[in-house]
Amino acid sequence: MELFANKKPDHVQAILASIVDYTDDAIFSSSLEGTITSWNNGAEKLFGFSKEEALGKPISLILPADRITENETLTVRLNKGEAIDHFETERLRKDGKLVYISLTVSPLKDAQNNITGIGQIARDFTKHRKSRETFKALLESAPDAMVIVGNDGKIQMVNAQTEKIFLYKRTELIGNMVEILIPQRYTQNHPSHRSSFFSDPRVRGMGIGLELYGKRKDNTEFPVEISLSPLETETGIVALAAIRDVSLRKKSEEKFKALLESAPDAMVIVGQDGKIQMVNAQVRNIFQFERTEIEGQPIEILIPQRYHQAHPQHRKSFFSDPRVRSMGIGLELFGRRKDGVEFPVEISLSPLETEEGTLALAAIRDITGRKKSEYKIQQLNRELEEHIVELESFSYSVSHDLRAPLRAIDGFIAMFMDKFQDDVDPEGKRLLGNIRRNVTKMSNLINDLLMLSRIGAKDIDQTQINMKTLVNSVLDEFRETHSHATVQVGDLHPTSGDIALMRQVFLNLISNAFKYSSKKEQPHIEIGSVESKGEIQYYVRDNGVGFDMEYYNKLFGVFQRLHSPQDYNGTGVGLAIVKRVITRHGGHVWAEGKEGEGATFYFSLNTTTHGAS
After folding, report:
1. Which of 103, 124, 145 marks a domain boundary?
2. Is residue 4 assigned to a domain?
3. More confident residue, 52 or 606
4. Rounded distance, CA 62 to CA 46, Å?
5. Domain that residue 515 falls in
6. 254-292 b/e (C-beta count within 10 Å ≥ 16 → b)
7. 5 burial class (0-12, 13-18, 19+ CB within 10 angstroms)?
8. Is the dihedral of CA 234, 237, 238, 242 positive or negative?
9. Residue 51 in domain
């Protein structure tokens, strides 16, 4: 074959020809005029032309139209004795399709060193090209800046995100040293870091635990994260650097830290391994530990020793179902300070999603002051209850002791009038009548006070009450004395409670309605109930004298009256009785009114506790 020097022994030429003929690479030659002079099996496979079809044909047989000029340039260079190694180009197959190849071209010389032809070795690079295009596409689609650097420190390839983040065009970066992307203060030490990577090429995070920065074309700096990976290429190992701009994350972290620091509670962030990752300043105030003393330590450092054994299971339970919750609901929780002193706490747990996984954010509140206040309130309540019992007992005793002499006074006056009626002049009779009326008024007042004290001491009997029947029985007591008034009774929901006390409520409210509407030409009273928001609201409405809402807060107090006793008689205790009865039943009372236009008195009972069937 013309590929070999003529002076080699025939057997050597035969061996070389056999190797050339059966190699996978396409090996062929052409004369200086461009006629194909040799064509191996690899050329047949690559281009689809058999030896018979190729030999003696012009080399343009496999040249695309746009590669003719390229071939002419190669010929000129080869005539000068140059060899051209491994450049990528395209050639034409027999079926008309293009094949992408890596081509080596060398001049062929005779024994006198004269150039007699051109030898070419072609390797199919179609798959390699597709792989490279796929790699480039992946590189371009990466969300991070991707920079490929050789062991000489020069940038070989970048993606679009690199241009976007660093503000350079790729033509400004490729071929430049990678230090162009690094702040000036780091460039001196960077070559040694690069050498360290190439001496042990493996996937690693760069500058772990350090603050890393990139430098844009306009010299502004920004925080980055960098991941390095070795990449095998035909020319050797290169470094693939994935660079992420973490400016937004840093700002978010700083904002989060600021919020954490401003929180009024101790804030502790714990990983699934139970170790404290971050705390705020309030932790020092409450637990007396410095940050450096507890960050990285097990969370149990803040918990009394007696809870240590059970706590890991509680932590595991939270991470198996991470959601906002209060810790130890219904339990007494305690924290432990650095000096070992325990104190009561409230703890709220929240899951915190991070790139490293779910963390637990514990908000811990020292409730020592509240516990002391609660204890003081409980103590005061107990003392108040004791005083109320004493006061009710005193009221009962006084009321009981006063009733006997009042009855005696009334009895003596009655006896006196029976015996000496003819001997007493009209003025004397008037004065004695006033005494009897005041005795009756005082007796009524004592009875009301006695009832008020009994309500505080009496146990509430819970029985089913037909409220409509109860109201009608109360109205029967007023039919003769207030026959001129119209009374409208609407729906009255049944309920449960103390029937005697509930009767007293309606007796007082209906009596007031008759009394304060008695001076109207046509008195009108309306009684009914409605159900609203889980409770029954009963009402008694009249069209009487009404009241000014400015003095509403006096309505349900003992001895508080909004009208003159000369105009409307009464003890000033009736509405206080109503309020106490309803309060004992777990409800509340209120009223609405307007001067000259009447009033409406309401009381409510909870349907879940006192609900009707």
Report:
1. 124
2. no
3. 52
4. 11
5. 459-610
6. eeeeeebeeeebbbbbbbeebebbbbbebbbebbebeee
7. exposed
8. positive
9. yes
